[in-house]
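input
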Amino acid sequence: MLLRLGVALLDRWRALTTAQEVDRGDSPVPTVIIWIGLAVIAIGLIAWAGTYVSNLASQAPTTIPSPPTP
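output
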């Protein structure tokens, strides 16, 4: 049992420390494209929210209504 564990650990250590790494991760190009897309969406949402709030504020009444008479 200990021999199998030692062999498995040694095999894993060699796989992690070799120069010919098989799993090199994702290419940076798709990651950059995703980040640019998210930034464009965020800028669009901020612009939409600013326009919405600005229009809502411009429709607010600017005078105080007179109180009801008894």
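quick obs: Residues 48 and 68 are 38 Å apart (CA to CA).
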